[in-house]
Amino acid sequence: MTNAATSETTLRVRYAETDKMGVVYYANYLVWFEVARTEWLRDHGWTYREMEAGGAMLPVIGVQCEYLRSAQYDESITIRTIGILHSPVRVEFTYEVFKQDGTVAARGTTMHAAVDLNGKPCRLPEKVREVFA
Amino acid sequence: MTNAATSETTLRVRYAETDKMGVVYYANYLVWFEVARTEWLRDHGWTYREMEAGGAMLPVIGVQCEYLRSAQYDESITIRTIGILHSPVRVEFTYEVFKQDGTVAARGTTMHAAVDLNGKPCRLPEKVREVFA
Amino acid sequence: MTNAATSETTLRVRYAETDKMGVVYYANYLVWFEVARTEWLRDHGWTYREMEAGGAMLPVIGVQCEYLRSAQYDESITIRTIGILHSPVRVEFTYEVFKQDGTVAARGTTMHAAVDLNGKPCRLPEKVREVFA
Amino acid sequence: MTNAATSETTLRVRYAETDKMGVVYYANYLVWFEVARTEWLRDHGWTYREMEAGGAMLPVIGVQCEYLRSAQYDESITIRTIGILHSPVRVEFTYEVFKQDGTVAARGTTMHAAVDLNGKPCRLPEKVREVFA
User: Fold this and answer.
1) What is the pTM of this model?
2) Sign of CA dihedral D95, D99, D102, D106
3) Tens-place pLDDT, residues C6-43
4) Is A37 helix (H, G, I), strand (E, B) or coil?
5) Catalytic residue among D19, D74, D101, D116
């Protein structure tokens, strides 16, 4: 691990994201993580879309999430994201999901490996590595 | 419209497919329609996967659905599907979604246009047209 | 139909919302419709969440959608929504989904029936009817 | 941890579950885990639906998943599930997701806490504990 940088994203809970327990279904936090890291990248000067167009992708190779409080329909949720460069071929994001009242709903981590458009491992583009550094 | 053929698919309602109203979220019926037409095609001797691999796709250009009764978590749902060839470039599927007790939960229709891998309109492969005929 | 009022919502396409065709999966437009009508209601002075808390719900009884152009990952999408009161027990929303370049990706309609928390048809709360009027 | 029991579930990958990378979106494995543990419970003599109706729920309090190979549209996926009783108030499920060719696509774990319908921690129903024992 060499470096870190933080950004924040806000989203509103969709009805579609709830389940019959009345709160957000657990898999949807991983969708929010994706939104959060997309915005993290944009905040740091490039987009995942451009990176893919440039021939590199960052598929998730591992995820973990701890659920502390349930999130409700129509709540305004804030996600604080940190991106970390682990090596020239691997990055990690950590996420804290805050409820509208400021308490933590969930904490998670995703690990990503850089691959080219054929799915072969590759080094992260120089420009991307600089974003993390 | 030249021809029609019917098939049936069964699936069980997932917790993920419910929402805080306690029943299946309305957009998920369109996912079930996709499952149903995939199975319809398989029942008729080929797969959508093979069709895509062969260079033709059938994106949805229109959908309509009428919701009559709600579907519950863990219910066994049966979908009766009919495929209709409208023209060499267009097909339609109609769906009836049955609850476990045999009553109708929903009825819907999807219209599809044949396109090649560049998204340009194309004629349906001969083999596919025969399936509908 | 007695009255109408318009509002606009903007959202960014999530990776999760795309499918292997490379564009947004057709069922996800219905999720966007839900986001759009939630914001329409908020723009008009109340929230669907409050309405549910007050004992009335607006389940979808019918939907139709026409797909004109595909929406891409990370595009900024704008949805123009109109709410219409059909009767004291029924409302309709119509949606136009605009791509980032201003062209129309899709057009749709949802019809809703007012029901109480037991799922029985009921009149829309006075306050809600006023929103549409 | 006192005991364990295994079951297997099979499902077919839906188009809706893929993303623009052409393979299954990572959050959808968590939906499959839900399907797998529902079937595990059914194989062991009761249903999650009945358990909820009886006043107890098993929300997820933690998840982790490791992604080894991507899963493709229309593949037949098999999930091998093991349920473990950690304590009178906590259960764990572990999952191995197999591709059609028998290789492992993913491995994961979910941890669950028993709560009553008000969301308060509670002991698992005796009948449920016996299932794990």
Assistant:
1) 0.95
2) negative
3) 899 999 999 999 999 999 999 999 999 999 999 999 99
4) helix
5) D19
What is the spatial distance between Cα A117 and Cα D105, in angstroms, rounded to a whole number?
19
Number of compact structural domains in chain B:
1
Model confidence at B1, in pLDDT bands (50, 70, 90)? very low
Using the structure block, give the residue that is written with the tokens 């219209």. B111
Q: Which residue has the tokens 């699936």?
A: B11
CATH code assigned at D54 = 3.10.129.10
For residues A78-116, one letter each, b for 16 or more C-beta atoms within 10 angstroms of the residue's C-beta and e for the rest, the string is bbbbbbbbeeeebbbbbbbbbbbeeeebbbbbbbbbbbe
Asked if D60 and A67 come within 8 Å (Cβ–Cβ), the reply is yes
What gap in Å lies between CA B95 and CA B33, rounded to an integer? 7
Active site residues of B: 19
| Residues of C labelled as active-site residues | 19
Cα(D28)–Cα(B73) distance, integer angstroms: 18
Maximum Cα–Cα distance across chain B: 46
**Partners of residue A19 in chain B, C-beta under 8 Å:** 15-16, 18-20
Distance (Å, rounded) from C-alpha B13 to C-alpha C105? 30
DSSP string, A45-104: T--HHHHHHTTEE--EEEEEEEE-S--BTT-EEEEEEEEEEEETTEEEEEEEEEPTTS-E
Prediction ipTM score: 0.94
Q: For residue A82, give its domain range.
A: 4-132
